[in-house]
Hints:
Chain A is mostly helical. Chain A has helices at about 1-30, 40-60, 65-90, 95-120, 145-150, 155-170, 175-185, 185-190, 195-225, 235-245, 250-270, 275, 280-295. The radius of gyration of chain A is 20 Å and the shape is globular.
Amino acid sequence: xxxxxxxxxxxxxxxxxxxxxxxxxxxxxxxxxxxxxxxxxxxxxxxxxxxxxxxxxxxxxxxxxxxxxxxxxxxxxxxxxxxxxxxxxxxxxxxxxxxxxxxxxxxxxxxxxxxxxxxxxxxxxxxxxxxxxxxxxxxxxxxxxxxxxxxxxxxxxxxxxxxxxxxxxxxxxxxxxxxxxxxxxxxxxxxxxxxxxxxxxxxxxxxxxxxxxxxxxxxxxxxxxxxxxxxxxxxxxxxxxxxxxxxxxxxxxxxxxxxxxxxxxxxxxxxxxxxxxxxxxxxxxxxxxxxxxxxxxxxxxxxxxxxxxxxxxxxxx
Amino acid sequence: xxxxxxxxxxxxxxxxxxxxxxxxxxxxxxxxxxxxxxxxxxxxxxxxxxxxxxxxxxxxxxxxxxxxxxxxxxxxxxxxxxxxxxxxxxxxxxxxxxxxxxxxxxxxxxxxxxxxxxxxxxxxxxxxxxxxxxxxxxxxxxxxxxxxxxxxxxxxxxxxxxxxxxxxxxxxxxxxxxxxxxxxxxxxxxxxxxxxxxxxxxxxxxxxxxxxxxxxxxxxxxxxxxxxxxxxxxxxxxxxxxxxxxxxxxxxxxxxxxxxxxxxxxxxxxxxxxxxxxxxxxxxxxxxxxxxxxxxxxxxxxxxxxxxxxxxxxxxxxxxxxxxxxxxxxxxxxxxxxxxxxxxxxxxx
Lengths: 317, 349
């Protein structure tokens, strides 16, 4: 049992971190009333930027390279998400369509530039990805230490901490209240002097930053290079986590951890007697099946923010 | 006023395509390629000889069908992002029938095609049902159904249709859409009779929507659910019907790939993208059956022509994906184009 936990938990944290980060972005965007199907594309952009920056500047920044890479990916991710914000907030575009276009565009740009710059469909492997490490002091605690703090990626803890930060910002600050108000009833918020369009822009930019962070963390911990097949569905899984977590940062974190568990079980299941008998396909489709069940109301009701997906026309009714 | 809005309806897609192509040229310039060479290669890749024309038609066939799948649901105000999954299950079902049954062509082929449509329709039924009965948003459900389709289909190919293999045996000749005659006049491209089915499906959609009371109800539900309910229409039934028929079109698209182009089905590492491209096709075609045919052909040309770009002009094929994404953006943000056009008109007066 102890050994099983010791092999599963770090793997769960490892697989969930990118999902948690990206899902947090989704929570911000959707809480402000902008549907973000484009999370997948934002992750693609983050993964692409993270890898390319890492490959290009590894000599210059040394051991700090992965950290600076994910920061740059965050910045580029949020710049990229401006397209979604302009289309869906300023031009009243259908937000789902705009999100689909974001996904196509990100993959198109990423692979196009990869081919132009590297002359082939995928980049080289990065020299400086994130490595596992033991957290000092905490790793020495008996039982808990080896399970939670040995051979862990520091980015996993970054994701968990950011989830709590996101919760604090959304639920304990005036900014968060305004952001949620804009997503529930934009007209009422507008009447109270909240700038609806500005709040939505900020929220979409935040989702771009988190999506870029999530994608780059995925690329620098799990994938180590970029190609058309680096991000395949993780963004949609993050979107599922947003909904399964009922549009709440900590709920999304829990859902992402659960999906991470499902993913890692499909990887490590062969080593665990009871799980080895479950067909792999069940574990693969579990996150999606559970999301459908959650939405159908079998696992508590999932209600979207009221104004989610509705463009706000000033003076419209 | 009505003539004006019709005018706009045509102008927006045309302007979007033009801006998309110009943006593509700028991207080629920025990445150090010659845009004229690039587009010349694209043209040659799509229309260069009878072989490429055959391949272009072959590639357009499923795009028209997935475009119809998205457009049909959209008429009822539903967003069918699930065309992707519906394509996959349709493909699987058609190939499965193609492999498992032994019958003369006159029975085998129609049954296999129909199996694809039914499988796609079933895959659209669940999101429709959840939407109609529980008010669950169809976008999320169909996205989840896409992944379930992908993983389940892969598992069935590995464990049922083959013995841990990645590609099935070719289907029986009696279930094949391939045509020696069509192939022989196009230098043995993979063109097949599917294009006729796609055009017929577009006709069916036009007929249902414009000429039957079913279509009238579907549209009415799309315009105003509550008013339709008040007028005595069965809203739930119409929502489910719309998703099932839309799913059926997408399933047909999968059947075209399975019975026409490939004759097999393989384990997929990712999506076919036919369903996602279908969204672009429907959007550009303004959800109109005839518009979808034109948009499907255009995207078929772009995608087939892209294959020639790396070898002749050194431009990566992904340029076309960028162009298509941009076209979607411009059509979706048509507010700005309409605004600019109306400004332009006023100034002219």
